[in-house]
Write a structure and sequence with these properties.
3 helices
């Protein structure tokens, strides 16, 4: 009996695909997160003081640490495949080194004025702070049924509209290019890195607002009452003097 049991376990393990997740009850729609990651128990509050260096540096240091894997040199070294922009990167074979699949580079400089390269403070030493939006990975997920239409980030002011004079997106249009999809998993794509969108807010008046940033696409839902981070993230942004 012991031998039969061992044989059954061996056959089961032999037939499992190491590149497929053990559990298939994954979310159909990805969650969305914001950086600096000042997550509280119930709400996200990004509050800083422009007059206190320690306060605004806490925010900028958080973004610098988060962006370390996106360093331009590091990305060009580990993800040097010349991806075709504007279309899904479907890979039916493991043609990358070590029996893996290619991953497209996403570099820090692609975040423009919010990259931390030209402005290491990310705007937190004044009233023009940057936040970074990241959509979580879902294996084999394609964000749109329509070829050539990429998901994009759209931020709306839920409270304090009069306190936000301008919103800018980086890359332009807040687009997450289709070439970063689908994601095949950590074993298949060990060098994969999430595409990002940075958003710069010009705060005026009372310099505080409640903001919702949503990843817009026809296969990304955002009205799940039980999961407030599905397809969107809501946070408070406030600059003190």
């Amino acid at each position: 009996m012991t031998s039969l049991f061992s044989l059954a376990i061996w056959v089961l393990m032999y037939t499992l695909d190491p590149y497929a997740p053990d559990y298939q009850d994954r979310l159909k729609s990805p969650g969305v997160m914001v950086w600096p990651d000042t997550y509280g128990e119930e709400v996200i509050e990004i509050t800083y003081n422009t007059s206190e260096k320690a306060s605004w540096m806490k925010m900028s240091n958080c973004l610098h640490n988060f962006l370390k894997p996106y360093n331009d040199t590091k990305q060009h070294d580990c993800n040097n495949y010349n991806c075709t922009k504007g279309k899904y990167f479907i890979q039916n074979t493991f043609s990358a080194p070590h029996h893996t699949k290619w991953a497209c580079p996403f570099t820090q400089s692609m975040l423009g004025a919010c990259s931390g390269i030209e402005d290491p403070a990310f705007g937190y030493n004044c009233s023009m702070p940057c936040v970074i939006i990241k959509m979580n990975r879902v294996i084999d997920f394609l964000p749109s049924n329509r070829t050539g239409v990429p998901p994009y980030v759209n931020c709306t002011i839920l409270e304090g509209q009069e306190n936000v004079a301008k919103i800018e997106y980086f890359p332009e249009g807040g687009i997450m290019d289709l070439s970063y999809f689908p994601y095949y998993g950590i074993l298949a794509q060990p060098s994969y890195i999430n595409p990002l969108v940075a958003v710069k807010f010009s705060l005026v008046g009372q310099k505080c607002a409640k903001i919702q940033c949503r990843v817009v696409s026809n296969k990304i839902s955002y009205e799940n009452f039980h999961d407030p981070y599905e397809g969107k993230v809501i946070f408070y942004l406030k600059a003190l003097k």
